[in-house]
């Protein structure tokens, strides 16, 4: 059984993430899509909300398991019996930081490979932060996020704006 871990904040999951997930499922028996809990990052969605979105969007992918973890990704991958960590790349600018992280992980766990998957060109401009900004200002999210994620983004920003007016 070949297991891989695809870690991320998924705040929120985008169509670029989905592209990487679907392609990684073709390479492994099980793909664990794992939310990395990072207390230093201020997430828009709670961990529970992000887990709900992942379950909703990935429910039709039988090879996918959804989880969350704290700590080093490579240690989490080792505990899961993973042979690989999947990292998505949108542009060459992503590579330098990802390369350093992959080398660090290789030092810590030589038995775990890091695989870089380039997202399809049509998703290369999409980032979770860009999606949040577009949603905040009411812009068009078509082809950027799945419809259930768009609905949650719209609701979240309506609530934030409503609370800000009080």
Write a structural description.
The chain is globular. The protein has a single domain (3-123), classed as Rossmann fold (3-Layer(aba) Sandwich), CATH 3.40.50. The protein has a five-stranded parallel β-sheet, sandwiched between helices. It has helices at 15-25, 47-58, 73-79, 92-108, 128-136, 147-165; strands at 3-8, 30-36, 64-69, 84-89, 113-118. The protein has six helices and five strands, in the order βαβαβαβαβαα. The protein is α/β, with parallel strands linked by helices and 166 residues long. The longest helix has 19 residues, at 147-165.
Counting helices, strands and paired strands, the structural category is: alpha/beta
Give the spatial strand order of the biggest sheet: 3-2-1-4-5
Order of helices and strands: EHEHEHEHEHH
**Mean of pLDDT:** 94
Radius of gyration: 16 Å
Provide the domain count. Answer: 1
The percentage of residues in β strands lies in 15-25%
Pathway: Cofactor biosynthesis; coenzyme A biosynthesis; CoA from (R)-pantothenate: step 4/5
Protein name: Phosphopantetheine adenylyltransferase
Enzyme class: transferase
Cofactor: Mg(2+)
Concise account of the structure shown:
The protein has six helices and five strands. With 166 residues, it is an alpha/beta fold.
Q: Which helices and strands occur, and which strands form pairs?
A:
Blueprint lengths: L2 E6 L6 H11 L4 E7 L10 H12 L5 E6 L3 H7 L4 E6 L2 H17 L4 E6 L9 H9 L10 H19 L1
Parallel strand pairs: 1-2, 1-4, 2-3, 4-5
